[in-house]
Amino acid sequence: MFCAIFEIAEISNLRSIEREAKPALMKNLLKCLGWGALLLMAYKIGSLAFLASPSNGKEATLNASTTTAVADLVIKGLHLTETSGDKLLWEIEADSARVYQQQQVARFRNIRLTLYEERAPVLKVQGDNGRLDMQGRDMVVKGNVIARSQAGLIFETNSLNWENKKRLLYTSDPVKITKVNIIIRGVGLVADVGLEKLKFNNGITTIIN
Protein backbone atom coordinates (compact mmCIF):
# COMPACT_ATOMS: atom_id res chain seq x y z
CA MET A 1 0.00 0.00 0.00
CA PHE A 2 1.01 3.59 -0.63
CA CYS A 3 1.04 6.56 1.71
CA ALA A 4 1.11 10.26 0.88
CA ILE A 5 2.32 12.72 3.50
CA PHE A 6 2.27 16.51 3.50
CA GLU A 7 4.71 18.62 5.45
CA ILE A 8 3.23 22.10 5.49
CA ALA A 9 4.87 25.38 6.40
CA GLU A 10 1.84 27.64 5.96
CA ILE A 11 -1.77 27.20 4.87
CA SER A 12 -4.32 29.63 3.51
CA ASN A 13 -7.86 28.59 2.55
CA LEU A 14 -9.18 30.98 -0.07
CA ARG A 15 -12.80 30.07 0.65
CA SER A 16 -13.41 29.54 4.34
CA ILE A 17 -10.24 28.94 6.36
CA GLU A 18 -9.03 32.28 7.62
CA ARG A 19 -8.41 32.56 11.36
CA GLU A 20 -9.65 29.25 12.71
CA ALA A 21 -8.14 27.42 15.66
CA LYS A 22 -5.53 24.82 14.75
CA PRO A 23 -7.76 21.72 15.27
CA ALA A 24 -10.49 23.14 13.04
CA LEU A 25 -7.88 24.17 10.47
CA MET A 26 -6.49 20.64 10.26
CA LYS A 27 -10.02 19.20 10.06
CA ASN A 28 -10.82 21.42 7.08
CA LEU A 29 -7.49 20.56 5.47
CA LEU A 30 -8.13 16.85 5.75
CA LYS A 31 -11.64 17.29 4.33
CA CYS A 32 -10.38 19.30 1.36
CA LEU A 33 -7.59 16.87 0.54
CA GLY A 34 -9.70 13.80 1.22
CA TRP A 35 -6.65 11.82 2.39
CA GLY A 36 -7.79 10.78 5.88
CA ALA A 37 -6.30 11.28 9.32
CA LEU A 38 -2.70 12.46 9.55
CA LEU A 39 -2.77 13.21 5.81
CA LEU A 40 -2.29 9.56 4.89
CA MET A 41 -4.09 7.68 2.18
CA ALA A 42 -3.54 4.05 1.19
CA TYR A 43 -4.58 2.63 -2.11
CA LYS A 44 -3.83 -0.23 -4.48
CA ILE A 45 -2.26 -0.07 -7.94
CA GLY A 46 -2.23 -2.50 -10.84
CA SER A 47 0.72 -4.31 -12.38
CA LEU A 48 3.72 -2.41 -13.77
CA ALA A 49 3.81 -2.08 -17.57
CA PHE A 50 7.26 -1.24 -18.87
CA LEU A 51 7.52 1.21 -21.79
CA ALA A 52 3.89 0.67 -22.73
CA SER A 53 1.94 3.48 -24.31
CA PRO A 54 0.53 6.06 -21.87
CA SER A 55 -3.17 5.66 -21.06
CA ASN A 56 -5.48 7.39 -23.54
CA GLY A 57 -6.68 10.77 -22.35
CA LYS A 58 -4.28 10.92 -19.41
CA GLU A 59 -2.39 13.96 -20.61
CA ALA A 60 -5.61 15.77 -21.51
CA THR A 61 -7.01 15.12 -18.03
CA LEU A 62 -3.90 16.41 -16.30
CA ASN A 63 -3.85 19.52 -18.47
CA ALA A 64 -7.51 20.37 -17.79
CA SER A 65 -7.70 24.01 -16.77
CA THR A 66 -8.30 25.01 -13.16
CA THR A 67 -7.52 28.66 -13.81
CA THR A 68 -11.17 29.70 -13.48
CA ALA A 69 -11.69 27.79 -10.22
CA VAL A 70 -10.94 29.16 -6.76
CA ALA A 71 -8.43 27.03 -4.85
CA ASP A 72 -9.72 25.42 -1.66
CA LEU A 73 -6.26 25.65 -0.10
CA VAL A 74 -3.01 27.46 -0.72
CA ILE A 75 0.02 25.75 0.80
CA LYS A 76 3.36 27.54 1.03
CA GLY A 77 6.53 25.50 1.42
CA LEU A 78 5.44 22.01 0.40
CA HIS A 79 7.15 18.65 0.87
CA LEU A 80 5.17 15.64 -0.35
CA THR A 81 6.33 12.01 -0.38
CA GLU A 82 4.81 8.72 -1.45
CA THR A 83 5.88 5.34 -0.12
CA SER A 84 5.14 1.64 -0.61
CA GLY A 85 5.87 -0.13 2.65
CA ASP A 86 9.30 1.14 3.62
CA LYS A 87 10.18 2.12 0.03
CA LEU A 88 10.14 5.75 -1.06
CA LEU A 89 8.60 6.03 -4.55
CA TRP A 90 8.67 9.75 -5.26
CA GLU A 91 9.09 13.08 -3.56
CA ILE A 92 7.84 16.57 -4.42
CA GLU A 93 9.09 19.90 -3.15
CA ALA A 94 7.51 23.16 -4.28
CA ASP A 95 7.46 26.82 -3.32
CA SER A 96 3.67 26.67 -3.14
CA ALA A 97 0.68 24.52 -4.02
CA ARG A 98 -3.01 25.18 -4.72
CA VAL A 99 -5.48 22.40 -3.98
CA TYR A 100 -8.77 22.10 -5.91
CA GLN A 101 -11.11 19.71 -4.14
CA GLN A 102 -13.73 19.29 -6.87
CA GLN A 103 -11.17 18.52 -9.58
CA GLN A 104 -9.01 16.48 -7.16
CA VAL A 105 -5.98 18.36 -8.48
CA ALA A 106 -3.03 20.09 -6.83
CA ARG A 107 -1.00 22.67 -8.76
CA PHE A 108 2.58 23.56 -7.82
CA ARG A 109 4.87 26.52 -8.42
CA ASN A 110 8.61 25.88 -8.86
CA ILE A 111 8.35 22.12 -8.52
CA ARG A 112 11.21 19.71 -7.77
CA LEU A 113 10.28 16.06 -8.31
CA THR A 114 12.52 13.13 -7.35
CA LEU A 115 11.72 9.59 -8.54
CA TYR A 116 13.09 6.57 -6.68
CA GLU A 117 13.92 2.95 -7.52
CA GLU A 118 15.07 0.45 -4.92
CA ARG A 119 15.19 3.21 -2.28
CA ALA A 120 17.66 5.24 -4.36
CA PRO A 121 16.94 8.47 -6.28
CA VAL A 122 17.20 7.77 -10.01
CA LEU A 123 15.77 10.94 -11.55
CA LYS A 124 15.46 14.56 -10.42
CA VAL A 125 13.05 16.78 -12.36
CA GLN A 126 12.50 20.51 -11.99
CA GLY A 127 10.14 22.91 -13.73
CA ASP A 128 8.25 26.17 -13.45
CA ASN A 129 4.91 24.53 -12.67
CA GLY A 130 3.47 21.13 -11.86
CA ARG A 131 0.17 19.37 -11.47
CA LEU A 132 -0.78 16.28 -9.45
CA ASP A 133 -3.89 14.14 -9.91
CA MET A 134 -4.65 13.39 -6.26
CA GLN A 135 -6.51 10.18 -7.08
CA GLY A 136 -4.23 8.38 -9.54
CA ARG A 137 -1.06 10.29 -8.55
CA ASP A 138 -0.27 11.07 -12.20
CA MET A 139 1.74 14.26 -12.66
CA VAL A 140 2.87 16.77 -15.24
CA VAL A 141 5.79 19.20 -14.91
CA LYS A 142 5.74 22.17 -17.31
CA GLY A 143 7.96 25.09 -18.24
CA ASN A 144 11.76 24.92 -18.56
CA VAL A 145 11.77 21.26 -17.56
CA ILE A 146 15.18 19.79 -16.77
CA ALA A 147 15.64 16.21 -15.58
CA ARG A 148 18.89 14.66 -14.40
CA SER A 149 19.27 10.89 -14.14
CA GLN A 150 21.52 8.93 -11.83
CA ALA A 151 23.35 7.68 -14.93
CA GLY A 152 24.35 11.24 -15.89
CA LEU A 153 21.78 12.04 -18.59
CA ILE A 154 20.39 15.57 -18.76
CA PHE A 155 16.91 15.74 -20.26
CA GLU A 156 15.37 19.06 -21.39
CA THR A 157 11.86 19.70 -22.68
CA ASN A 158 8.84 21.96 -22.17
CA SER A 159 6.61 19.41 -20.43
CA LEU A 160 7.05 15.99 -18.88
CA ASN A 161 4.27 13.66 -17.75
CA TRP A 162 4.52 10.94 -15.11
CA GLU A 163 2.07 8.02 -15.24
CA ASN A 164 2.19 6.67 -11.72
CA LYS A 165 0.52 3.29 -12.21
CA LYS A 166 2.82 2.28 -15.07
CA ARG A 167 5.80 4.28 -13.73
CA LEU A 168 6.40 5.82 -17.14
CA LEU A 169 7.58 9.25 -18.30
CA TYR A 170 6.32 10.72 -21.56
CA THR A 171 6.05 13.94 -23.53
CA SER A 172 4.84 15.02 -26.96
CA ASP A 173 7.15 18.06 -26.99
CA PRO A 174 10.63 18.41 -28.54
CA VAL A 175 13.29 16.94 -26.27
CA LYS A 176 17.04 17.26 -25.87
CA ILE A 177 19.12 14.62 -24.10
CA THR A 178 22.76 15.26 -23.27
CA LYS A 179 25.40 12.92 -21.90
CA VAL A 180 29.01 14.08 -21.84
CA ASN A 181 29.71 14.98 -25.51
CA ILE A 182 26.63 13.36 -27.09
CA ILE A 183 23.44 15.31 -27.78
CA ILE A 184 20.24 13.60 -28.95
CA ARG A 185 17.22 15.57 -30.13
CA GLY A 186 13.78 14.29 -30.99
CA VAL A 187 10.07 14.99 -30.77
CA GLY A 188 7.95 13.01 -28.34
CA LEU A 189 9.31 10.41 -25.96
CA VAL A 190 8.31 7.53 -23.69
CA ALA A 191 10.87 6.47 -21.07
CA ASP A 192 11.32 4.39 -17.95
CA VAL A 193 11.87 6.03 -14.59
CA GLY A 194 15.67 6.16 -14.87
CA LEU A 195 15.83 7.21 -18.56
CA GLU A 196 17.59 3.95 -19.33
CA LYS A 197 15.02 2.84 -21.93
CA LEU A 198 13.91 5.56 -24.35
CA LYS A 199 11.44 5.47 -27.23
CA PHE A 200 11.31 8.57 -29.43
CA ASN A 201 8.27 9.30 -31.56
CA ASN A 202 10.10 10.96 -34.47
CA GLY A 203 12.66 13.51 -35.62
CA ILE A 204 15.74 11.98 -33.99
CA THR A 205 19.12 13.62 -34.58
CA THR A 206 22.41 12.85 -32.84
CA ILE A 207 25.36 15.20 -32.46
CA ILE A 208 28.77 14.08 -31.16
CA ASN A 209 31.03 16.94 -30.11
Topology:
Blueprint: E1 2-12, H1 22-33, H2 58-62, E2 73-84, E3 87-100, E4 105-117, E5 120-133, E6 139-149, E7 154-163, E8 168-179, E9 182-191, E10 198-208
Antiparallel strand pairs: 1-2, 2-3, 3-4, 4-5, 5-6, 6-7, 7-8, 8-9, 9-10
Structure report:
With 209 residues, this protein is mainly β. It has one domain: Sandwich (lipopolysaccharide transport protein A fold), CATH 2.60.450.10. Helix content is 8%, strand content 56%. It contains 2 helices and 10 strands, in the order E-H-H-E-E-E-E-E-E-E-E-E. A 10-stranded antiparallel beta sheet has the order 1-2-3-4-5-6-7-8-9-10. A hairpin with a 4-residue loop joins strand 7 and strand 8. The protein is globular, with a radius of gyration of 18 Å. The N terminus is likely disordered.
Summarize this structure briefly.
The chain is mainly β.
> Ends: how far apart?
46 Å
Tally the structural domains: 1
CATH superfamily: Lipopolysaccharide (LPS) transport protein A like domain
Q: What is the general shape?
A: globular
Assembly state (oligomeric) = single chain
Strand content: over 45%
- Characterize the largest beta sheet: strand count, sense, and whether it forms a barrel: 10 strands, antiparallel
Structure summary, number of beta strands: 10
Mean pLDDT: 75
Protein structure class: mainly beta
Query: What is the alpha-carbon Rg in Å?
Result: 18 Å
CATH topology: lipopolysaccharide transport protein A fold
CATH top level assignment: Mainly Beta
Number of helices: 2
Weakly predicted, low-confidence segments: 1-53
Strand/helix succession: EHHEEEEEEEEE
Estimated helix fraction? under 10%
Proper CATH architecture: Sandwich
Strand order of the largest sheet: 1-2-3-4-5-6-7-8-9-10
